[in-house]
Amino acid sequence: MKTEIKSKRGSMIPCDVYEGNGRGLIVFVHGFKAERSEGGRFTEVALRLAKKGFNSIMMDQSGCGESEEPYDLYCIDNSMDDITSCIEYMFDRYDIDENRMAMVGYSMGGRITSIYVNEVDRRFKTIGLWAAAVSDMNDLSTFVYDSNGNSLKDEADRNGYASYFNEFDNTYIHLSKQFYDGMFNYDSVGDMKKYDGNVIIVHGDADITVDPKIAYNCFNNLTSDKKKKLEIIPGANHGFGLWDDHPEQSKRLVDVTSQFIEECLK
Fold it and tell me: What CATH architecture applies to the domain 2-135+187-264?
């Protein structure tokens, strides 16, 4: 079901809601310059887990997908505000069991997820991180420096935004000072060290966008008293087969994530 939810900024958030036959809730958070279904993989997880009693919601963040906002408004704080608005929407309309809540984040959405479940809403008992950018900024150098080695954060501090070359569509886009403030001020690595829920991390060993070492580091930092799983998909790049016609990689991504959430939140 397509719907729109009013954001804390007064704009409308384009969303998809999938109804289950029970009280579970899954919130999906897409990646940088992506769209809410992440090429249909979020939708596949939502449909599969709807049969197990989970309701799901996925949203287009500022400037992404069907959002009518400019991309200048894309930043961690606005994304987390939108997640909160969507959760409130679901609690208003469905009888949600707070012990059966999961969040799945892809790439930058994984970074936002790791922060959100610690800094904003600690009810989420299980999370899935797909090729997640859960690292310090030293491992995300393309966001830090331009091709000439100049600091993009310094540019954003001076001008209110930095002109960033987006390699996925070969265009320059504005990344705001608020974007960089969030990227540098929130500690996603530290948040995952203290997270006390269940975690599945899925990464491709051929990912050159978010280095696979980030997945290993994140996994090794998880506390030992939680259910955790690291799934490395051989040959998969950052798109998990969507960019290079390997549907079996996306199938594995969907399968292991769906199974993990179901097992953790029975």
Answer: 3-Layer(aba) Sandwich (3.40)
